[in-house]
Structure formats: C-alpha cells, structure tokens
Amino acid sequence: MGRIIAIANQKGGVGKTTTAINLSSSLAGLGKKVLALDMDPQGNMTSGLSVNKNEVENTVYDLIIGGAEIEECICSEVFENLDVLPSNIDLSAAEIELIGVDNKEYIIKNEIEKVKDDYDYVIIDCPPALSMLTINAMTTADSVLVPIQCEYYALEGLSQLVHTIELVQERLNPSLEIEGVVFTMYDARTNLSLQVVENVKDNLNQNIYKTIIPRNIRLAEAPSYGMPINLYDPKSAGAESYMMLAEEVINKGEE
Ligand SMILES: Nc1ncnc2c1ncn2[C@@H]1O[C@H](COP(=O)(O)OP(=O)(O)O)[C@@H](O)[C@H]1O
Ligand SMILES: [Mg+2]
Prior knowledge:
The chain is an alpha/beta fold. It contains 12 helices and 7 strands. A 7-stranded mixed sheet has the order 3-4-2-5-1-6-7, with helices on both faces. Strand 3 (75-79) and strand 4 form a beta hairpin. It is globular, with a radius of gyration of 17 Å. The protein starts with a strand and ends with a helix. The chain binds adenosine-5'-diphosphate (ADP) and magnesium ion. The site of adenosine-5'-diphosphate (ADP) has 17 residues, from helix 1 and helix 10.
C-alpha cells in the first residue's frame, strides 16, 4: 500500500518543489514505484519532471472539477518507476470552483484512493499557502514533510504551519503525521546555516532528518532541462543528498 507524503510549507522559495521532484525521483531510482502529484498552480514540479504543463491534456484541475478520470490525468512512466499527475495555472481557479462544494476537503483524497495501491509512494508538492489546495493535500497524505531553508527567518511561520497540521489532524484526517523537517540550501561556508540548524533543533519539537540538503547549483539548473538531479548530475552533492534523504524516508517508513 502506498505511503503518501505532502511536502508543505506556506513560505515560498524554501525548497518544496526541489525536494518534491528529487525525493520522488530518488525513491524511483531506488526501485520504488512513485506518483508525483503537483498541487501547485505554478506547475514547477510538473515541468521539472519534463512534462509540458501547457500541452498536457488533463491536470489536477480537471480532476477537481470532475472533468476527467484520474487514469486520464496521470502521465505514466515519465521516468522509470515515476508517474506524474500534472498541474498548471488552471489550478489557480480551483479555490473558487470549490466554494460550496460538498466534501471539498476530500476531493483529491477520494481520487488518489483509486490508484494508491499502484504505488509505493505518492509525493505531493504543495503551493506556498495554507489554502484549500494544501488542505486537500493534507487530507490525502499520511504525513507532512516540511522543508526549512537555512536562513535567518527559518522559524517564522512554522508555528502556523504546525497549527494548521494539528487542525487537520483534529477535524479532517486523524491519522496525519508530521514526517519531519528537512533543512535545505545549507551553505557550509557560512556560520548562519549552522546557527539556523542549531536554533531549529533547540526550538522545534519534531523529527529532524539527518540528511541536510546543501546549496548546490546543479539542483537549481536541473529543472530547466526537465530532469531530476539523479539523472541530470548523479555525482553532484545535491543528487547524493536527495538519495540519502530517500533512503531515510524509506527506513523511517519501515520502523
Ligand atoms: N539545495 C538547493 N541549492 C540551490 N538552489 C536551490 C536548492 N533548493 C532550491 N533551490 C532553488 O531555490 C529556488 C526555490 O526553490 P523551490 O524548490 O522552487 O522552492 P518552493 O517550492 O518552496 O517555492 C529555486 O530557484 C530552486 O532552484
Ligand atoms: Mg514550489
């Protein structure tokens, strides 16, 4: 049975999409069957995994408005072991379409339910907001993985995020867990990155992944080639770190 992990943080630019893309593809590289689900209207997970977001026939939006079956929305074997459920700017209208719809918090959950046995992992990229799209991701997910950028304001906004997760646990998805936090864009040349890691460890009572994702230019370049890092530059520090994160995620699930 598939394990569903939402990559969430309402801050933009913290490494959600980079983590969603490369965790998905590293898990696939380790032989796991993966569905990458793009819940962000920016569609960067979609294009970063080589799917043309403007030409794709059906997206998450069509799923939400009931315009297509989930099987018609999934792009199969985009890379070995990796399927993509794409999104694009159409999804930005979903919030409005959902007003007044019954069980709108569970639309994606009910759809993913139909296919989740086909996968070992479903990895969900969330938009940078605590919106109905993020709520849909959190009702669908078994756990939430929170990327934290190693910068001065790292802890800002985290309490709102944890509060939102707790509300979803109470009211919508009692089995939702916090998978843990992963530090991103760590710069070993500065003291700041180290201070941020120490500070978060001291102040956040959550599981923290041992793997720390370094700032690595290859990770920033790869999406423009539509390639995940393990295919774009498998020897890079970025590729190695996401492979280690994938191994940690697998081991944690088997505990
Ligand atoms: N570890 C990293 N090293 C270098 N650049 C990174 C790294 N992680 C993310 N980036 C870059 O930072 C920007 C924001 O990352 P992104 O994953 O899109 O964040 P989010 O999805 O949270 O908005 C992107 O341009 C991305 O390429
Ligand atoms: Mg993003």
